[in-house]
């Protein structure tokens, strides 16, 4: 395998990894924009999404012809995790929201641990794994490069979802209301927008996006109860690179992070990934302290 | 139409309004003038529901609205044009105007209102595709007023509309508010530091000083009043 084959292979890996990061980070940044808070449970929504899609397809729906379809299971997993997202909002965020900056960080941390431990009890033993018809169907468009259909699906699904999000934010009534709330909450409430409703919508969307990411990862990686936290950190990094509370920034930052990790890990040395990635982030933030697309709204 | 009795508002231990009473009749343009820190903005923000009153009554068309959340008060037709313009900077002019009509579900009605606002402020039509954060100060102020009109309010509240505008623009704005009030017969409560501008277009006025109403009279009388002249008109 030549260096160039390796390079192309890692580009495809990076785009897939980046797609997952973007999905998690878009939700994270939506919370940051609309609710002005850091949601520590964001990575745990991904973990739950992975477990729920496993649960639906390998257990609950497994004998039902239509429902056991992977895509139907993704839809159910996403829906159930977004309900968990609303639950996190009503139990952990709403009672303390707006009183202090630290309080929601603490409460969502507590809920993140709660979710993780409930998952540990519900799915005991080692990590789960699942297979779909997509996960071992390899294609090799160029000589030595191999891509599973699952990877293609992950990338395409992320792109489609982001397009849907973009169009909804631009043209739907609720999307415009979300943007207005992000940009000036008190003016938005003077227009008759109920911020409390927008908070719930944002939290459910944030959970849904992370859940889809988890459901797409499930056939590719082992599903573990501890997989949530690392993705929260990735979301943090993505938002730092891209710019706070800004969806376009989350997309750029997520893809960049995925590509950097894949290229550095694949072409150089996996143990240097974090050192190199954080080095590059420091350089980016030195040059552009507000992030690549910082200073712009949602 | 709007009746306020003994309104008290506090920021922590600091009293911003110490028992304000005032009234705005149907179709009236009432000005509240006063210096910086007199509590003018607090008064409007409390009427709109952005602050909770500590004591006292706010009645709008016979309904007690004191302490309700802002979005509910907006749904009764009490619409504020906020201080510092408060436009949505990353939205276009047109999108900002559409947000003003958020509670209206009919596309045709929104279109009609849009035409009305455009005829009042032709400049907004020229700028409709531009991000409002990139508009000039005067244009942003027009946009804020237009956005308020898009709600087709029963009552308009203006919070320091002349703030940061050049004298020429202040005059334009005063004309616009006057036209909105007279030709479209809106009830207006105008809070202004620019006392001359406010009293020239108002029917009646109140003077707010350190959280209390110290004077209330017809605008013409206030313009002639010796202490108002000295303190607020700089004569």
Characterise the protein shown here.
The complex is a heterodimer of chains A (298) and B (235). With 298 residues, chain A is an all-alpha fold. Chain A contains 11 helices and 2 strands. Chain A has one domain (14-226). Chain A has a two-stranded antiparallel ribbon with strand order 1-2. The radius of gyration of chain A is 19 Å and the shape is globular. Chain A starts with a helix and ends in an 11-residue tail after the last helix. The mean pLDDT of chain A is 90. Chain B contains 10 helices and 10 strands. The longest helix of chain B has 17 residues, at 167-183. A 6-stranded mixed beta sheet of chain B has the order 6-7-8-3-9-10, with helices on both faces. With 235 residues, chain B is an alpha/beta fold. The chains are: A mainly alpha (298), B alpha/beta (235).
Mean pLDDT of chain A: 90
**How many helix segments of chain B?**
10
Largest sheet of chain B: 6 strands, mixed
Rg of chain A, Cα atoms, Å: 19 Å
Find the count of extended strands of chain B (DSSP E, 2+ residues). 10
Beta-strand content bin of chain A: under 5%
Alpha-carbon distance between the termini of chain B? Answer: 34 Å
Order of helices and strands of chain A: HHHHEEHHHHHHH
The spatial strand order of the largest sheet of chain B comes to 6-7-8-3-9-10
How does the overall form of chain A come out from the CA principal axes? globular
| Uncertain stretches of 5 or more adjacent residues of chain A | none
**Low-pLDDT segments, ≥5 res of chain B:** none
Task: Write a brief caption for the model.
The complex is a heterodimer of chains A (298) and B (235). Chain A is mostly helical and 298 residues long. Chain A has 11 helices and 2 strands; from the N terminus they run ααααββααααααα.
């Amino acid at each position: 395998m030549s260096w160039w084959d390796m390079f192309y292979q890692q580009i495809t890996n990076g785009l897939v990894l980046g797609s997952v990061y973007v999905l998690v980070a878009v939700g994270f940044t939506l919370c940051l924009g609309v609710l002005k808070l850091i949601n520590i449970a964001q990575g745990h929504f991904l973990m739950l999404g992975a477990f729920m899609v496993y649960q639906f397809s390998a257990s609950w729906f497994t004998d039902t012809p239509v429902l056991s379809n992977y895509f139907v299971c993704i839809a159910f997993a996403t829906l159930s995790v977004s309900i968990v997202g609303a639950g996190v909002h009503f139990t952990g965020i709403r009672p303390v929201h707006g009183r202090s900056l630290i309080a929601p960080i603490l409460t969502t941390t507590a809920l993140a641990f709660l979710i993780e431990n409930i998952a540990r009890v519900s799915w005991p033993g080692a990590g789960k794994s699942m297979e779909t018809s997509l996960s071992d169907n390899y294609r090799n468009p160029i000589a030595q490069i191999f891509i599973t259909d699952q990877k293609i699906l992950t990338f395409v699904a992320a792109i489609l979802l982001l397009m849907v999000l973009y169009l909804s934010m631009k043209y739907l009534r609720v999307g415009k209301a979300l943007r207005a709330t992000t940009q000036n909450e008190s003016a938005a409430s003077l227009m008759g927008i109920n911020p409390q409703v927008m908070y719930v919508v944002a939290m459910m969307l944030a959970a849904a996006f992370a859940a889809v990411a988890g459901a797409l990862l499930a056939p590719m990686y082992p599903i573990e109860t501890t997989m949530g936290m690392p993705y929260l950190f990735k979301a943090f990094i993505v938002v730092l690179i891209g710019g706070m509370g800004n969806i376009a920034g989350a997309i750029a930052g997520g893809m960049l992070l995925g590509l950097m990790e894949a290229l550095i890990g694949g072409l150089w040395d996996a143990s240097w990934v974090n050192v190199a990635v954080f080095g590059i982030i420091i350089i980016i933030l030195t040059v552009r302290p507000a992030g690549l697309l910082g200073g712009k709204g949602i | 139409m709007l009746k306020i009795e003994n309104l008290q508002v506090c920021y922590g231990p600091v009293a911003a309004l110490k028992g304000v009473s005032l009234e705005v009749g149907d179709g009236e343009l009432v000005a509240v003038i006063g210096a910086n820190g007199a509590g003018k903005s607090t008064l409007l923000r409390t009427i709109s529901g952005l602050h909770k009153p500590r004591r006292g009554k706010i009645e709008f068309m016979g309904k007690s609205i004191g302490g309700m959340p802002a979005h509910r008060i907006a749904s009764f037709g009490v619409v504020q044009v906020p201080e510092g313009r408060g436009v949505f900077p990353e939205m276009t002019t047109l999108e900002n105007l559409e947000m003003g009509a958020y509670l209206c579900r009919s596309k045709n009605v929104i279109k009609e209102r849009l035409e009305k606002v455009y005829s009042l402020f032709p400049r907004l039509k020229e700028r409709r595709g531009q991000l409002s954060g990139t508009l000039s100060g005067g244009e942003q102020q027009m946009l804020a007023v237009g956005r308020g009109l898009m709600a087709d309010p029963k009552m308009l509240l203006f919070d320091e509309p002349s703030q940061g505008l050049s004298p020429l623009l202040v005059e334009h704005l005063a004309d616009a508010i006057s036209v909105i009030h007279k030709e479209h017969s809106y009830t207006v409560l105008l809070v202004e530091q620019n006392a001359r501008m406010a009293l020239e277009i108002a029917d009646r006025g109140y003077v707010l000083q350190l959280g209390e109403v110290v004077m209330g009279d017809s605008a013409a009388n206030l313009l002639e009043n010796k202490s108002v002249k000295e303190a607020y008109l700089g004569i």
